[in-house]
Design goal:
Elements lengths: L1 H55 L30 H5 L7 H12 L13 H11 L2 H22 L2 H11 L1
Organism: Herpetotheres cachinnans
InterPro entries: CD74_antigen, MHC-II_Gamma/Thyroglobulin, MHC_II-assoc_invar/CLIP_MHC-bd, MHC_II-assoc_invar_chain, MHC_II-assoc_invariant_trimer, MHCII_invariant_trimer_sf
Main location: secreted
Length: 172
C-alpha cells in the first residue's frame, strides 16, 4: 500500500507542478500580448498631456508652426491666385508670430499687389513723415483720424483716476 501511495502522491505533485508551470506560461503569454496595447496607451496619454499643456499656454507663447496651414488643406476659394512677382510671398505663412507679420500676411492675402513702405528710421516722427510721403492725401487723412481715435482709446485705457481729473480740469 505504501508503494502505491507514494506513486499517487508523486503523480499528484507532478500534475500540480505541471499546472503551476502551465499557469505561469499562460500568464506570461497574456502579459506579453497586452504590452503592445499598454505601450500604445502610454503614447496616447503622453500626446494628450502635451496637447493639454499647449492649450494652457498663452497665445503669444505658442509656436508659429501651429499657425501655418498646408496649401493642400486650404479650400480653393481661400487660395491666392498669382497676380505678379509678389504672389510667391503671399502663399507662404507669415514670417513670425508677431502681430505686424500676421496682419501683413492677411492684408496680402486680400490684395497681393499691396505694397508696404519700409520704415527704417529710428525716430517715429521720421517714419511718419516717410509714410505720409508715400500715401495719398485722402489715405493720410483717414490714417490721421484713425491715429486720433487710437490715441483716445490708449489714453482712456491707461489713464489713472487722478490723471483723468487733471485732464478734464485743464480742458475746463
Amino acid at each position: 500500500r505504501s508503494a502505491l501511495g507514494n506513486k499517487v502522491t508523486l503523480s499528484t505533485l507532478s500534475i500540480l507542478v505541471a499546472l503551476l508551470i502551465a499557469g505561469q506560461a499562460v500568464t506570461i503569454y497574456f502579459v506579453y500580448q497586452q504590452s503592445g496595447q499598454i505601450s500604445k496607451l502610454t503614447k496616447t496619454s503622453q500626446t494628450l498631456q502635451l496637447e493639454a499643456l499647449q492649450r494652457k499656454l498663452p497665445a503669444s507663447a505658442k509656436p508659429a508652426s501651429g499657425m501655418k496651414m498646408g496649401l493642400m488643406s486650404m479650400p480653393m476659394a481661400m487660395r491666392v491666385m498669382p497676380f505678379g512677382p509678389s504672389a510667391d510671398k503671399v502663399a507662404m505663412a507669415p514670417a513670425s508670430n508677431k502681430t505686424e507679420d500676421q496682419v501683413k500676411h492677411l492684408l496680402l492675402q486680400g490684395d497681393p499687389r499691396k505694397k508696404f513702405p519700409e520704415l527704417k528710421y529710428n525716430m517715429m516722427v521720421d517714419n511718419l513723415k516717410a509714410l505720409k510721403s508715400t500715401m495719398t492725401a485722402a489715405d493720410w487723412k483717414s490714417f490721421e483720424s484713425w491715429m486720433h481715435k487710437w490715441l483716445l482709446f490708449e489714453t482712456a485705457k491707461n489713464a489713472k483716476p487722478e490723471e483723468r481729473k487733471m485732464i478734464s480740469a485743464k480742458k475746463g
